[in-house]
Amino acid sequence: MEVSASTKYSVPRGFRDFPPEVTLLRKRIIGVIEGVFERYGFDPFETPVIEYWETLKGKYGEEVESKLLYRFQDPWSGEWLALRYDLTVPLARFVAGQALTLPFKRYHVGRVWRHERPQKGRYREFWQCDADIVGSPYPEADAEVIDVVCDVMESLGYSEFRVRLNDRRLLRGIFEEELNLSRYGEGKVLEVFRAIDKLEKIGRDGVEAELTRIGLGSSEVEKIMGVVDVSGNPEETLNELEAQFKENESVCTAVDHLKGVIDASSHKNNLTLDLSMVRGLDYYTGPIFEVYVEEPKIGALAGGGRYDDLIERYGGPRTPSTGVSVGLERIIDAGLELGLFNLERKTCTQVFVVSMDEKYWSYAHNVGRELRREGLKVQVDLMRRSYKKQLEYCEKKGINAIVFVGEKEASTGTVTIYFKDGKRRYEQVALNEAIKFLRQETY
Amino acid sequence: MEVSASTKYSVPRGFRDFPPEVTLLRKRIIGVIEGVFERYGFDPFETPVIEYWETLKGKYGEEVESKLLYRFQDPWSGEWLALRYDLTVPLARFVAGQALTLPFKRYHVGRVWRHERPQKGRYREFWQCDADIVGSPYPEADAEVIDVVCDVMESLGYSEFRVRLNDRRLLRGIFEEELNLSRYGEGKVLEVFRAIDKLEKIGRDGVEAELTRIGLGSSEVEKIMGVVDVSGNPEETLNELEAQFKENESVCTAVDHLKGVIDASSHKNNLTLDLSMVRGLDYYTGPIFEVYVEEPKIGALAGGGRYDDLIERYGGPRTPSTGVSVGLERIIDAGLELGLFNLERKTCTQVFVVSMDEKYWSYAHNVGRELRREGLKVQVDLMRRSYKKQLEYCEKKGINAIVFVGEKEASTGTVTIYFKDGKRRYEQVALNEAIKFLRQETY
Asked: Is residue A308, in this structure, part of any structural domain at all?
């Protein structure tokens, strides 16, 4: 029995329904990610999907605020609200209002909303999986969140991936002190960061045009593009930067800190220093990083960094913090393309109890109850269908273990089991025997 | 190290942050509920939190639309959107647009929003845990969703609970044909249902006033209140109703169907027929039910019913469906009050590796890595604190297993373990030995 497709009702563009085969995969992947987070001692945490607009304002840059943030008025109070744009700002807002034992290590898997142009790996409603260490200013905390995301990648079967590493203080030091961008005023460096962040989207020419548009001269643009070109083995590159900018305090602080991060990391071989990787968000203050795979070309699968000032901005004391955000849809979309995951599993049901005739309905339901009591995932027909139709349903859903009940079984209190994969059949076995077989052969 | 509480930033009224001790409990309870759903062969499923206003319009009644539904305009397109009000309407919208294999048994645990007055067990952002059977018109499907919710209650430790059962056709038959309410027009019966639904909130007098307000005469009001008073053992009461209204087709259909439900249920003893229980939502067409505990007085913990017309209203073919919605916050709030649950567990961390001096930091981190590789949930100090401060942190978080590394341990490649609960101590044991102890004694 099929329902034909026909409806004028849909979900808004960039939003998605997740049918069971997709949700089963998503839940499995979220389980793996949460498992890694918990092994590092991060605890689960939740915030509302709605925040006061006031809370989000001024945290992400003007372009985000005007083009990407879902803002609306409470229909009753008229207060301005917004759908959360990330999970970091709500965390900072929460921490500022609490007396917490530090470090506060929390993870949060949840939806965020951005009014982006929908495309592969990019949706308007999507999931982030965040792990943050609130309270530690030390490089070993940055190293830990990088190790966490590397463990996530490995646990999901990604063998080839790069972590591009940078430090906002490195760029700020060079841009403000060497290029003297500070003479353009406080916010100019953030504007430059946002321009560089578009490198992959709009290319070198695009970034140069953007830098010119925001008022920089051609020699400044050239120098910025020269800095952005620096990338390579992190230790060597850091030593070179240190030698070149040894009088620049910001650069030296950043180099020291990054050396500490690399030293404490157990994934040194995955790290590349890349000065073109700046992250789009305004609130970063120290090390930043993004995780990439060579193929498919889908953008960063994860990213994060240090934000030592953010909690202060919500009225809390200065609380150095660092964290990582894993993009669930990109992890899934890339993994599907790479063949790491598939959507073959259609149901969690392990066993279907097929009733050969309506006379045995009640017996079939009793058998179903007994099997459930043993923890098995069991369906019994609810459609009053012939046993053939019941078998068709099992076929479509890919249910492997079929338990038949007919006259012989009902009269002897037994069942007959058939496993589709190995074509094994067990005739009229007692229920406790059946449970043993089913436990062994279901997954 | 504590962060002092001080902030002008908060979440909107009726919205909540969930710190780790709350989220740990919530995740455990959601796990139990999802476990029961899966044992009955329901598969996980997700929809966006935002729907087009058009999708929700006309499904819940006028009062809900004007007072409770979060409606807003898309800031860019100007389209009217809304936060979902329940999980049933999005399911119906989805099913109508798909060619699905039936029965489609899905579960969905997710947030919904209602602009209610916040109070105990009632929030503006809250979670529903829904299980629905799409495609079966038969009483055994209704019985299954009732069995599911009873299994959920029992699995969570609730020993005393009642399922109040009714059928919209029972009331409709009596109200329309016996009291001739149809002469007031199509929607009058729904208005009467909504008035009766407020019985617990506003009392008998309140309901009578409400019925008068919507235009019913005093003898009609009296007769309605007489019907509403019917409650008791379901089989007996159904037989009485059948005898009294044997010419009334709606009533007889409902009585037959309810007898089938009771017959197929494995939780007969929990059922009460209660004609005052009408459910507030407009879309129900057959059996309806709600789950209550005697104490605390917190309203229904779960409820559900049959909605055979809803999918049709989204352009799909007529697809009889039935389901249940478990109210997560009421389950938790009532369970906390009854002592079924507590918030004592502050962290999922099982092991803390205490470094006796900074000389052993690197060894401590290596030990942490090894333990994590074995699946243990492990923290290592990230704050460069003295071992005393590290122990204070463990104390505050309630971490039971402490792994010490100092000079002796580092030089011999061993660790010393201390379990706080049993005060057991194992000096300088090899790491593989340590893993065995930790596996046995952590939870």
From this structure: yes
Alpha-carbon gap, residue B304 to B307, rounded angstroms: 9
* Chain B residues close to A19, C-beta within 8 Å: 45, 94, 98
- The ipTM assigned to this model is 0.95
DSSP 8-state symbol, A159: -
- Per residue in A225-263, pLDDT (tens digit) is 999 999 999 999 999 999 999 999 999 999 999 999 999
Looking at the structure, do residues B18 and B149 belong to the same domain, yes or no? yes
Instruction: Specify the number of domains making up chain A.
Output: 3
Residues B83-99: tens digit of each pLDDT: 999 999 999 999 999 99
pLDDT score of B4? 40
- Least Cα distance to A112 among A71, A132, A81, A84 occurs for A84
Same domain, A85 and A152: yes
Long-range contacts for B230-236 (Cβ within 8 Å, ≥24 apart)? B230/B273, B230/B274, B230/B275, B231/B164, B231/B272, B231/B273, B231/B274, B231/B275, B231/B276, B232/B272, B232/B273, B233/B272, B233/B273, B234/B165, B234/B258, B234/B262, B234/B268, B234/B271, B234/B272, B234/B273, B235/B259, B235/B262
Helix axes A139-155, A20-39, angle to 10 degrees: 140
| Domain residue limits at A68 | 11-161+293-345
Residues A143 and A254 in one domain: no
Strands (E) in B184-300, as ranges, are: 231-232, 271-274, 287-292
The answer to whether A382 contacts B9, with C-beta atoms less than 8 Å apart, is no
Residues of A in contact with B102 (CB under 8 A): 1-3, 383
What's the rounded Cα separation, in Å, for the pair B224 and B274?
13
Residue B299 lies in a domain: no
**Cβ of B377 and A133 within 8 Å?**
no
Q: Which residue of B has its CA nearest to A16?
A: B48
User: Testing the interface with B: which of A46, A49, A113 to mutate, by most B Cβ within 10 A?
Assistant: A46
Identify the CA nearest to B224 among candidates B181, B284, B281.
B181
Residue-averaged pLDDT of chain B: 94
**Dihedral sign for Cα atoms in the order A390, A392, A395, A401:** positive
> Taking all residues of chain A, what is their mean pLDDT, rounded to a whole number?
94
| Alpha carbons B423 and B103: distance in angstroms, whole number | 55
My answer on whether A149 and A58 are in the same domain is yes
- When CB atoms are compared, the residue of B26, B140, B314 closest to A7 is B314
Q: Mark whether A125 and A210 lie in a shared domain.
A: no
Say if B332 falls within a structural domain: yes
Cβ A271 vs Cβ A165: under 8 Å? yes
| Best mean pLDDT range from A104-108, A181-185, B198-202 | A104-108
Written as six digits, the tokens of B182 are 């149809």
On whether both A256 and A108 belong to a single domain, the answer is no
B46 and A141: CB-CB below 8 Å? no
When scoring A9, A13, A27 by the number of chain B Cβ atoms within 10 A, the one with the most, hence best to mutate, is: A9
User: Is B9's CB within 8 Å of A103's CB?
Assistant: no
Work out whether strand B50-52 and strand B80-83 pair parallel, antiparallel, or are unpaired. Answer: antiparallel
Q: Final residue of a domain: which of B277, B292, B307?
A: B292
Look at residue B1 in the predicted model and tell me its pLDDT: 39
Both A137 and A201 in a single domain? no
Instruction: Calculate how close chain A gets to B176, using CA atoms only, in Å.
Output: 31
User: Is residue B399 assigned to a domain?
Assistant: yes
Interface residue of B43, B345, B443 to substitute, partner A, most A CBs within 10 Å: B43
8 Å CB contact between B425 and B401: no
Residues B153 and B187 in one domain: no
pTM (2 d.p.): 0.95
What's the pLDDT tens digit per position in B110-150? 999 999 999 887 899 999 999 999 999 999 999 999 999 99
Q: What is the DSSP string of B339-359?
A: TS----------EEEEESSGG
